[in-house]
Amino acid sequence: MCVIRTLRMQVIRFNEMTSELASKEGEGDLSLEYWNEGHKRYFEREGTYSEEMELIFEEFELTEIL
């Protein structure tokens, strides 16, 4: 368990994801292309994918490990 502090939250559309935000997620090679491919596959499996779908992007920091 841990405690986090939210630094920023924003609502963006899938097709508005930026290279900067994709790299902050820290997955794969940190590229926007990798982010798009992986997240598109996930949302397609869930049956919710749309280029216009809204996503909540949260930036946070770890403040304490419990």
Automatic annotation (TrEMBL):
It comes from the Bacteria. Residues 1-63 form the ASCH domain. The keyword Cell inner membrane does not apply. This is ASCH domain-containing protein. InterPro entries: ASCH_domain, DUF984, PUA-like_sf. Keywords: Plasmid. PANTHER family: CYTOPLASMIC PROTEIN (PTHR39203:SF1), CYTOPLASMIC PROTEIN-RELATED (PTHR39203).
